[in-house]
């Protein structure tokens, strides 16, 4: 709806839209300038800079003595960021973002002044992605602050930011960020298409947006990476990927990804390739261990005794002699118990969260063993599986693995290695079919898409010459073949 040239009708529309009279937050101020032109402004108390409104909008307009035939509203306002808006509905939406609507009688458009001044959390260290090497800055809930943190790292005029709003009630603003000279146009259009076609009343943040645009809704493995680190986001943008930052959420969504990206450390290339490769091997081993360890050990103790050394088999049999539950029930009960301890540690205040973890993991576990409810071997296996799960850097991936682990426990306890093998084939098939915005989740296992390494190998930084083929970047080469020019000059063969 466009503005009416009658100021009274526009004021009535804004009052009706914002429930003026019932809603104490909306401020509507009517005034005149020295030439007698009637004006009004509207903003939300607490979200706008009232000092700036008084000094550089109201005072500037009221003291304006411009002798032009028509009053120039935009020229009279002494504010940094002012834009014209012809739609009264879009101007009203800007008020909800902390801006101020200013209208002069007889005009066909208003001025929208960026006067945002609401309180927000200051930049702090990331909570879930701590590193030894690398930046210690994390995103905040303010989308503008998060974008600024990213632009401080990528100082390129080709870094584009496009805004899309989702959610009918809360109008959640999402920023699509990409490097225009690197990122595939097809990928950019696909992300914008999905975001523009989200329909819903309330979209609270990145977690809901992720679920609404991901490829594989029913898979336990995420197809979008969440990160709270601007430096990590910048690295993925430079590789030709896209980041989506949502207002009120201190995370960025990275797409497309592969399984190797989910298992990669936030430190990434900050580590030397030897230690980086060793860390990747450990994380890959932990990934496999957290899924299969409980199921494999249960299959061994229930069906395949011949594969267990006789001395160890005797110890296992002796510890299980007084246990009242079946082996499978014992593992399921212990895994549920550890999940309860994990959830309790997350939900209670930080001051007592660590204490609950110690009490639940050590004291209650030891008490259960001494009472003869579970065997000590089961407790050890479940604890190792839990520790391996904690090694996985991505929280969404580790959560999916915890669910998948119960499936392998049931398969191992009922069908032995036959069930474990069938489960592995099923998971690999699911991963092979799963994609992230057109990129296979197993793409890093092919030679063309593992140019910089894979899940278990990290190439030296000076050998990472190409971007992944699967991303279809506009520029495939990210550094020259000889990047250490000094080494070539000194006769060192790269």
- Proportion in β-strands: 5-15%
What is the end-to-end distance? Answer: 65 Å
The main β sheet shows up as: 5 strands, antiparallel
Helix and strand pattern: HEEHHEHEEHEEHHEHEEHHHHHHHHEEH
Instruction: Please tally the β strands and state the result.
Output: 12
Protein architecture, described:
With 494 residues, the protein is α+β, with helices and mostly antiparallel strands. It folds into three domains: 107 residues, no CATH class; 115 residues, no CATH class; 170 residues, no CATH class. The protein has 17 helices and twelve strands. A five-stranded antiparallel beta sheet has the order 1-2-4-5-3, sandwiched between helices. It has a five-stranded antiparallel beta sheet with strand order 6-7-9-10-8, with helices on both faces. Strand 1 and strand 2 form a beta hairpin. The longest helix has 30 residues. The mean pLDDT is 87.
Task: Please give a handful of descriptors for the protein shown.
alpha+beta, elongated, 5-stranded antiparallel beta sheet, 494 residues
Can you lay out the helices and strands and say which pair or pack?
Elements: H1 7-17, E1 26-32, E2 38-44, H2 50-62, H3 73-76, E3 82-85, H4 88-96, E4 100-104, E5 110-113, H5 143-153, E6 159-166, E7 172-179, H6 185-196, H7 206-213, E8 225-227, H8 230-238, E9 242-246, E10 252-255, H9 259-262, H10 273-302, H11 310-319, H12 327-347, H13 350-370, H14 376-391, H15 395-415, H16 417-433, E11 435-436, E12 439-440, H17 485-489
Antiparallel strand pairs: 1-2, 2-4, 3-5, 4-5, 6-7, 7-9, 8-10, 9-10, 11-12
């Amino acid at each position: 709806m466009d503005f009416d040239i009658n100021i009274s009708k526009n004021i009535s529309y804004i009052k009706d839209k914002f429930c003026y009279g019932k809603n104490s937050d909306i401020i509507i101020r009517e005034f005149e300038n020295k030439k007698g032109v009637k004006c009004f402004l509207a903003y939300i108390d607490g979200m706008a800079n009232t000092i700036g409104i008084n000094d550089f909008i109201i005072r500037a307009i009221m003291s304006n003595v411009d002798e032009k035939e028509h009053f120039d509203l935009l020229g009279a306002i002494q504010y940094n960021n002012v834009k014209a808006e012809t739609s009264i509905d879009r101007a009203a939406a800007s008020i909800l973002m902390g801006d101020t609507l200013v209208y002069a009688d007889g005009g066909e458009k208003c001025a929208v002044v960026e006067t945002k001044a609401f309180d927000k959390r200051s930049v702090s260290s990331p909570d879930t992605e701590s590193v030894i090497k690398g930046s210690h800055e994390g995103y905040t809930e303010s989308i503008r602050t998060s974008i600024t943190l990213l632009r401080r790292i990528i100082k390129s005029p080709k870094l584009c930011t496009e805004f899309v709003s989702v959610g009918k009630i809360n109008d959640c603003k999402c920023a699509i960020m990409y490097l225009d000279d690197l990122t595939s146009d097809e990928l950019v259009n696909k992300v914008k298409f999905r975001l523009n076609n989200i329909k819903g009343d309330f979209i609270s943040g990145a977690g809901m947006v992720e679920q609404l645009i991901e490829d594989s809704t029913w898979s336990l493995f995420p197809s979008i990476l969440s990160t709270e680190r601007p430096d990590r986001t910048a690295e993925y943008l430079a590789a030709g990927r896209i980041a989506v930052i949502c207002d009120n959420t201190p995370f960025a969504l990275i797409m497309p990804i592969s399984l190797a990206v989910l298992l990669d450390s936030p430190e990434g290339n900050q580590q030397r390739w030897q230690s980086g490769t060793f860390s990747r091997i450990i994380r890959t081993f932990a990934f496999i261990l957290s899924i299969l360890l409980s199921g494999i050990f249960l299959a061994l103790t229930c069906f395949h005794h011949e594969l267990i050394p006789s001395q160890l088999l005797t110890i296992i049999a002796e510890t299980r002699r007084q246990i009242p539950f079946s082996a499978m029930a014992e593992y399921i009960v212990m895994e549920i118990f550890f999940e309860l301890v994990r959830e309790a540690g997350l939900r209670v205040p930080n001051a007592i969260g660590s204490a609950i973890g110690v009490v639940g993991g050590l004291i209650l576990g030891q008490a259960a063993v001494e009472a003869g409810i579970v065997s000590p071997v089961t407790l050890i296996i479940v604890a190792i599986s839990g520790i391996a799960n904690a090694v996985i850097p991505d929280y969404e991936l580790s959560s999916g693995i915890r669910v998948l682990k119960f499936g392998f426990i049931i398969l191992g306890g009922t069908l032995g290695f036959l069930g474990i093998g069938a489960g592995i084939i099923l998971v690999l098939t699911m991963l092979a079919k799963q994609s992230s915005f057109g990129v296979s989740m197993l793409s890093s296992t092919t030679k063309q898409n593992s140019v910089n390494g894979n899940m278990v190998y990290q190439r030296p930084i000076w050998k990472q010459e190409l971007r992944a083929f699967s991303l279809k970047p506009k520029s495939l080469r990210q550094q020259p073949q000889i990047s250490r020019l000094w080494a070539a000059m000194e006769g060192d063969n790269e």
